[in-house]
Design goal:
Chemotaxis protein chec, single chain
């Protein structure tokens, strides 16, 4: 099914939030938070989080502890994921480093991002997704779709219908 739409929320006085009810069944139990681009925070299903961890483990193979650049990059990626534990009311704490990354104070948006959710500060959401960049973002989507179409046209047998 996937994740679509958006919900406007606020952190409570203790800095906790809930995943909107509309997304909980699709997300399942045992989700992860990961720092995303442009100051977003991704909410990943347990399956997506496992894929992320697996990719980090692959990066480690063949690297020594003394490959400082590689170790620093891997540490940064490992630090960028968290596994919050919701309380009985489905609230969980957004850690300070995640709030700093996303410039979150109180008002937030939780948006669907097809295979994951994204958490944005209200200000970033309004600037990035609702601001004047929407047409540019649609241009990026159009280019991606055109690229995918070209790739499938270039594949042998792409014109064969089943």
């Amino acid at each position: 099914m996937g994740f679509y739409g958006n919900h406007s929320l606020q952190l409570d006085e203790k800095g906790r939030m809930r995943i909107p009810a509309a997304y909980r069944d699709e997300l399942g139990t045992g989700f992860a938070l990961a720092k995303g681009p442009d100051g977003s925070i991704y909410v990943l299903s347990a399956e997506k989080a496992a894929e992320f961890e697996s990719s980090l483990e692959k990066l480690l193979k063949g690297r020594t502890l003394f490959d400082a650049k590689a170790q620093l990059a891997i540490n940064a990626m490992a630090e960028a994921i968290d596994y919050p534990i919701p309380d009985d009311q489905n609230r969980f704490m957004l850690k300070a480093n995640f709030k700093r990354h996303a410039s979150i104070k109180k008002d937030i948006y939780v948006t669907g991002a097809v295979d994951k959710l994204a958490i944005w500060s209200a200000e970033r959401y309004e600037n990035v997704l609702e601001g004047g960049d929407f047409d540019k973002l649609m241009g990026v989507v159009d280019a991606m779709l055109s690229e995918d179409a070209k790739i499938s046209e270039d594949k042998p047998g792409a014109d064969i219908k089943e």
